[in-house]
Amino acid sequence: MHKKSELEAMSQEELIDIAKNLGIPSPNEGDRMGLIYQIIDEESILSASQKATTTKTPRKRVRVSKKETDRVYSASQGNGENFDMKKKEAARDNKEEATELKNEKTTPVISPELADLPVEAIVEKEISDNTIENNAEALSAPAPKKRGRKSKAEKAALEAAAKLAEEQATVLSDKAKQLPVMDEPITDVPLEILQDIPAQSAETIDDVTEAEVPEITEKTESVAPSTENFFSADENDFVVVEDIPIIPTEPAMDETYMTYPSQQPDITSHGLPDTYSYEAAENAPEKEIVLPKGTEPTYDFGDILTGEGVLEIMQDGYGFLRSSDYNYLSSPDDIYVSTSQIKLFGLKTGDVVEGPVRPPKPGEKYFPLIRVTKINGCAPSDVRDRVPFEHLTPLFPDEKFKLCKGHNDNLSTRIVDLFAPIGKGQRALLVAQPKTGKTILMKDIANAIAANHPEAYLIMLLIDERPEEVTDMARTVNAEVIASTFDEPAERHVKIAGIVLEKAKRMVECGHDVVIFLDSITRLARAYNTVSPASGKVLSGGVDANALHKPKRFFGAARNIENGGSLTIIATALIDTGSKMDEVIFEEFKGTGNMELQLDRSLSNKRIFPAVNIVASSTRRDDLLHDKQTLDRMWVLRKILADMNPIEAMTFLKDRIEPTKNNEEFLMSMNS
Q: Could you tell me which residues belong to the region Disordered (predicted)?
């Protein structure tokens, strides 16, 4: 019988010849596929008819042993025992025994009871038995014996029966001497012959079967119902569940073994039964899998690889740890955090999460987080029950950032430390005109805080800045620099500012002191104004009424927390840029800060730095930051400088503060 692929490979002439040989009356010579299907149909019909003619009525068989062992082979190296061959030999011997027993059945057998009777009585009994077998009605009423002399036919039959009985008795005695003891189980004997076999019951046959094939029964119970031992078989002893020839094989000594923790073997490629349980396979212990030659096993890193990043939770519940190297935006270094981990540890957007990660498996895109070891530098158990940032109690700053070390201090930081002190939780605003040195001043303040307060975490957030300033800031300031240059879209400015603010809030919730230097809040408000939907209420300068809410929320997050922790924001605001929008934005933020440091363009034009307008710069509630002696002397100094313009005041102050070593020495020199 041909297959479809074989017929498709043949030529048209060969197909027509096959169709004629099969006797197809009208083959489709023009339609090639139709002709192929006709040939396949005709061959199927012929095959079915041949099977129907050769099919015989199956005889009844007595179940003496399990049939599941017929297709099992057991082999060790090149020496194997083929149970199918053994079964066929046993069947052949049983068939010969059955034939002999059948021949004995057809020959009259003299029973021990009739051995002492005369020949005439034996013949009469045989005739009556034959009559009973041939006539069913005679079973209940056997015919009575006739009286009188017997006919010649009856006498001849009696003589033949007597002679036959003598020969049969001789044959039986010889057979009894030559007949061997049955060592093999009887499996192919018909039912009627088994009924005539005396006293050797099924128990004897079962005993012989159990003694004959103990190894098959053991293999069947341990291998056939379950597939657990299939993958853990030793290389010197294997079990195959398909009919294949026994071929001597050499052990593979150079195969590499590797255990995959969560990857189940491909059971469809091993010919397992259809009743294989996938749930049992998932719950089964891990098994060794033999990798093909040339495949390198995946190295188990364990807890060697650790990842850290700022968590950003997506709308679907899962999240990613963003890297500061990419300004907290999407990147290839993102680490996947599952929904269950987020719920278990109570994580929020902005949390700094640290923990071991593993390499992605085939089909995975990101490195998944295995477990959480630290959240914002604290233990996960301590962070879980934290109070949200919005529910923390804000206070006035009562602890000052020391900007001076006492020797070799920068003049800018010494002046700021005296006239506009910065406390933990300060909301400071640096009001500056263009080219007044606000970036340099902010850099000096950041380095002073980093040097004197290592416990504070500094973030330099540059929005809409020049790229070269970003590079300079990253190289000269001891702080984390997050930037979005002016060539980036407004959406990027807004996203970076939002995630930096969330990170600062989460750290404050855990009791840390965070300082954010924002340059500049005016450009950030411009970006929010660009991306915000139009509300219909437009202020002068084109500022949307609702656009300033989010930058105000950013700036208003600065506060000093009652029981520890603070968020300090030092932001720059641009004025006198010629833009009406900048003036409106500055007016909105003017009264929100609790510390204001103004820079004067006239001072920078004369190259007097720092270009600080001393009279206009001050800090609210500076009495909480200065001691009483310093506060009294500063009152006297401010009264003296109040009548001077910015240039005279800064010149007077520089002439007297530069000769002194530190601010304490300067304040002591005021009496002289």
A: 49-106
Query: Is 32 among the domain residues?
Result: yes
Residue-wise DSSP of 540-569: TTS-BTTTTHHHHHHHHT-EEETTS-EEEE
Residue 145 has pLDDT above 60, yes or no: no
> Same structural domain for residues 569 and 650?
yes
Q: Are residues 422 and 473 in the same domain?
A: yes
Backbone angles phi, psi at 400, to 5 degrees: -90, 140
Ramachandran class of 383: left when φ > 0, alpha when ψ lies in -120 to 50, beta otherwise: alpha
Binding residues: 423-428, 435-440, 466
Q: Are 566 and 514 in contact (CB under 8 A)?
A: yes
Q: What are phi and psi of 25, to 5 degrees?
A: -65, -50
- Number of domains forming the structure of the chain: 3
Least Cα distance to 329 among 536, 538, 489 occurs for 489
The token duo for 274 is 């259809």
Helices (H), 213-313: 214-223, 278-283
Tokens of 92: 């052949």
> What's the confidence (pLDDT) of residue 206?
47
Q: Is the pLDDT of residue 201 over 60?
A: no
Binding residues for ATP: 423-428, 435-440, 466
Q: Between residues 368 and 266, which one has the greater pLDDT? A: 368
Do 433 and 348 reside in the same domain of the chain?
A: no
- Centre a 10 Å sphere on the Cβ of residue 206 and count the other Cβ atoms it contains: 13
Inside any domain, residue 474:
yes
Sign of CA dihedral 644, 648, 649, 655: negative
pLDDT at 564: 87
Whether 381 and 528 share a structural domain: no
Sheet of strand 374-375, all strands in order from the earlier edge strand to the far edge:
367-368, 335-337, 319-322, 306-313, 352-356, 374-375
Q: Both 376 and 409 in a single domain?
A: no
Window from 173-187, 530-544, 550-564, 565-579 with minimum mean pLDDT? 173-187
CA distance 400 to 568: 11
Q: What percent of the chain has pLDDT over 70?
A: 65
Is pLDDT larger for residue 37 or for residue 493?
493
**133 occurs within a structural domain:** no
What is the rounded radius of gyration, in angstroms, for the C-alpha atoms of the chain?
Answer: 52
**Residue 301 is assigned to a structural domain of this protein:** no
How many alpha carbons fall within 13 Å on the CB side of residue 162? 12
Q: What is the pLDDT of residue 534?
A: 83
